[in-house]
Amino acid sequence: MSYGRTFELWREAAGDNWRAYTDHAFVRGVGDGSLPKAAFVHYLTQDYVFLFHFSRAWALAITKAGSVEEMRLCAATVNALINDEIALHIEVCADAGISEEELFSVEERPENLAYTRYVLEAGYSGDFLDLMAALAPCVFGYGEIGATLKETHGATPYKDWIDTYSGDNYQSVCFEIGALIDQAVADRLGSNPVESPSWASLCQHFDMATRLEIGFWDMGLRP
Amino acid sequence: MSYGRTFELWREAAGDNWRAYTDHAFVRGVGDGSLPKAAFVHYLTQDYVFLFHFSRAWALAITKAGSVEEMRLCAATVNALINDEIALHIEVCADAGISEEELFSVEERPENLAYTRYVLEAGYSGDFLDLMAALAPCVFGYGEIGATLKETHGATPYKDWIDTYSGDNYQSVCFEIGALIDQAVADRLGSNPVESPSWASLCQHFDMATRLEIGFWDMGLRP
Amino acid sequence: MSYGRTFELWREAAGDNWRAYTDHAFVRGVGDGSLPKAAFVHYLTQDYVFLFHFSRAWALAITKAGSVEEMRLCAATVNALINDEIALHIEVCADAGISEEELFSVEERPENLAYTRYVLEAGYSGDFLDLMAALAPCVFGYGEIGATLKETHGATPYKDWIDTYSGDNYQSVCFEIGALIDQAVADRLGSNPVESPSWASLCQHFDMATRLEIGFWDMGLRP
Amino acid sequence: MSYGRTFELWREAAGDNWRAYTDHAFVRGVGDGSLPKAAFVHYLTQDYVFLFHFSRAWALAITKAGSVEEMRLCAATVNALINDEIALHIEVCADAGISEEELFSVEERPENLAYTRYVLEAGYSGDFLDLMAALAPCVFGYGEIGATLKETHGATPYKDWIDTYSGDNYQSVCFEIGALIDQAVADRLGSNPVESPSWASLCQHFDMATRLEIGFWDMGLRP
Hints:
homotetramer; 223 residues; mainly alpha; Heme Oxygenase, Chain A; 0% strand
């Protein structure tokens, strides 16, 4: 998938790490149905905590935005995360027999904490683009994984999950955020951003967040 | 009006400053129609810039929230500000002959800048409650002014403005935010918050933001 | 004076505002001794509050630094501000009959608050360069004013103040910070920074902080 | 060791995690000399990266300070970290055959990154006390470990390390920071801080940072 020029460049720079993330054993287990249910449920409960902090990071992007347009799309993302995605997690977990109360009291794993605090800190200490580069791997990676699994999945109990991230709704979000990032990069680094000395640090944020995604899947396999 | 127990206490602590803000000559001019149109339009254009930064401050509150409930209400406020209030300003200014382009390029007055940067910095350097105390005077003051002018206004060209802030929609927002703040105070300072050593600094934030509102009205009278 | 290439470019972009700041009536009154003592003492007490928040902004620069070298110089600046400059203010105020206690309880004027909160917020919401551009006018302006007054001053009771900012110690700080900023700009925007789309916003921060310096001098003349 | 009343309470609340940190296999290996040199050198290079970010977090504490006294001690800590501790690491690593260049390019391990970003984010999103609670386990834990190993160590090549943290210099820092924290807690939460609803979240920050210290030692054993 291509969600924009900047994404393509960052993904390319992340190289093997990107493949290790999007073609992780956890992902393949979701696609062919071999992932144990306990691992999936464990992942979902950790992802619930993740979404809380990830929403906070998207809210920080509103604060760091440079225009009403940037604010608007970041605010729409915060709302989708808080009102749709977190609600979906509560629902799916309820189906899996996990009450909302249990969900609220789940203990955050170090791999989970490392990821969200890295993203938030990159945003607080850096600027809007630093934050975008750290947020991008989660947004676009799930888009790519969803689109791929939609084509390749076998008989799997995780079809709902695949439908969510391959669906038009989520895919549109990816394209919109891809366009937002392309515009934000053009506004701040110009038409040839790879020549900017700041480019390397953006690639580093994208790469580090990709590696932290790999760590998150690894953790998912260890309920 | 009472938008909650915390608001009442903060308002009382701000004393004469609160009255100087909510019963300002600018406000009275809106109510009796004596405010020159040039002053009102000047105020609206500055308020447009204000809303941009005020929305950023409410987004920061999402980042600093301690629960999904706090996030949810702060996110709803950000959306109301970005999607309704900013849009309303663009519309009202268009009616007054100010194009969106002019609005985008209006020069921020020092009294305007002082206010929003104070609020944002209080939030960045402090915690969720510090930010709430600095955000509160604008939210509740406009609610109170709207409700008062609704009862007292004469023949005035600014009836739409009065209707907006006295309307059920805006008044509901005030009650919801008042309840959010009461709960946030209880969660952090307990049932007797005025006994907490932190209480004084919250009152200071509320009082300072109130004084900066007075400065904003003063500026409004000097187009 | 030239404290570096970046400073020269920012100063040029600020145009008349820079002159209005560095050749302000307050400054001329310091040089020819015509400034009323009450105004000078009022300025000093406000400057004490200013230094507290300005030190906090330089500390934020350490947090936002990209290398140990950047951290080191910013930390040296914080120390000079806290240990030397604030101490000097306490001493000079004591000579003027203002106790440390009075100094601690001085009420911050809006023009003072506007300036430091603007700088801090620019740093929190932006990156290291945004913060440097907002910090620069105070550092370099006082260096320039000191150097100019050293050559031009008449019989004035404010010679100590002139000696402080024209002295080797303060001038060295200006050159070091000028070099730090030149390097920071090169590291982030490359060898032709004026071509970067980010350049305009750096000039805006420098210009706004310059205008807030003018407001500070204006306030100084109104004890 | 007791570095103050607040530390005692936080340490007690962290329970077994505190013991798992201060009596970790890595620590015992330092004391009895059984720790492989490769592990020690690996730890030192990661600790160099750690100190960079830890210094940034102490600088953030200056920005979030509520008084000149708090600023002063936090600034002294930043200086000790940047000028002494980082320099010491460069020196010790040089003795171990690691050039400054290698040190600069060491890849940050996830366990290292998780810790410093957690502390920084706790500071950015919370207030001064949240930051202190997250900073405390490193400061006081090394003080306690140094003091304990001084009494119990055998023939070990790591005696210099033990001398550093058990030495008067470092122990004084611990007592000063302990007093700073006691005062900061009294100023904000009053004389009975454990009754404050905020107390639990401070204990959580201390506990989480303690667990991240355990993760850091674990990582140290895996060069």
